[in-house]
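Before a computer can learn anything about folding, someone has to put a protein's shape into writing. The outcome of that step, for a single protein, is printed below:
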Amino acid sequence: DMDRARRYRLARIRAELVKRDLAGIVVYDPLNVRYATDSTDMQLWCTHNPVRYAFVATDGPVILWDFHNCEHLSWHLDLVDEIRHGKAWFYYEAGQHARERAGRWAAEIADLVMRHGGGNRRLAVDNINPLGVEALGALGISVHDGQEVMEHARTVKCADEIRAMRRAVAACEASMRVMEDALRPGMTE
């Protein structure tokens, strides 16, 4: 029951946020975005280029920022309350405008913290460069370790997650068997 697994995962994240007195978390790591939202899109590319991210309020919405025209990849996910277009402010994308774009990104994130944090301005972020920390700090938001939050959230699996992992392993093993059966001496890719 993937719906039940998604609700369980979100509850695990929020419990870790409460434990650390955090208003919410911003996740960039594709594994963390997947855990928080069950949404995927260009995970390998996003591992190197921080352009796809999500905000989970301790008590409030789950917001996903995705690429333009990719909203349809997550519309079916009940736990994602809103999908927005991501703001790219890393150097490869922004160049000399990185500081300015980081400021616009931080203003949007700070607004969410102010609206949903109940006065708490402590925010976890899993991957962030110094420009982002500086921009959030200028708006009164203190940045805390989001990787710790996510690692602890993922430590305890529910029965549905274990069943899903077993199905994924079985599918991979079946695919490997098909490939192995097709192998012949001298064949090339």
Remarks:
- The mean pLDDT is 89.
- DSSP finds eight helices and six strands in the chain.
- The longest strand covers residues 53-57.
- The helical segments are 2-19, 30-37, 43-48, 91-94, 98-116, 130-138, 146-154, 159-182.
